[in-house]
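Review form for a predicted model. The reviewer records the input and the model, then writes brief findings.
Reviewer: anonymous (R2)
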Amino acid sequence: MKTEHHIDLSSAEMANLWTAYQQDTMVICVVKYALATVQDTEIRSVLEFALQLSQLHVQQLTSMFNEEQLPIPDGFNEKDDLNLQAPPLFTDTFYLTYIHNMGKLGIEAFGMALANSARLDQCQYFTNCLTEYTQLFNQATQVLLSKGSYTRPPHIPKPKQVQYVQKQSYLTGWFGKRRPLNSIEISNIYFSMIRNILGQALLTGFSQVARSQEVRNYMIRGRDISAKHIEIFGSILSEDHLPPASKWDAQATDSTVAPFSDKLMMFHVTALISIGISHYGASFGTSARRDLGALYPRLMAEIANYAEDGANIMIDNGWLEQPPQAPDRDQLAKMHVKGRTN
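Model under review:
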């Protein structure tokens, strides 16, 4: 007779659940506020679906934490982190673009979580999440298209035949004539612009409503970094006479009333920075031109430094919740020795 044993979560599976709980509780707060201010009925429908998914996820995650006898993270909640009475801070189009981008990031995150999981229940959970967020992304895409708000990457002529690189000059980027960007490099640059445009709008809104001057200054600094990165990427596309990503009507209003706690806004921004670093890293790895190979590490270093400063602000204010951590074996050994000598 086969005996079934309970298999504890691996560190990767524990990290997946902890991260998902933080993200979903944050999304619930953001989307609840968006639903309190949005006017467009089609956009409202997308937001309602996003809220439904995150609320379902939090219920399922809470059950898993309880079953595994793990402490449920604090995350974010309506009482401490949300002000539903605040006037609109962003336009309706911003929220549609925001959910579209969150859907895309969710697909990436859940795909990674699935790939890092081994237990059947964990694999099934993240498979379901992946399917749900694909539906959310597709729904947001269709609404963007129907409203004429979807911005497409530049078009280039179709190749007439298969070609192979013949000369090392294909890699040239610093000196001499640069070859035109290839389709992979164009895609990397274009979507880096899109993410920075959305980030700039988010940071602009947050800078207007942050209660702490330190947090306000941090948001302003991030807004300016995004603007600089947008300009850099736009100039690279323009060099090959390719249209840069345009700024759509997805901006902040003139409200100065905070809908969210400083803690939530700082978490949101630092989480997006870490995702931005990973995207720049992927772009670095798939860009053949030397100038691009030098550009991405420089931009990554800049936002990594910005992220560290954000983490320090969160630590100083007691906002940085710690994920599950390995035991400090050296410290345990010292405590054991100290106990024996007493």
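Findings: Residues 12 and 116 are 6 Å apart (CA to CA).
Further findings: The chain has a mean pLDDT of 93.
Recommendation: see findings above.
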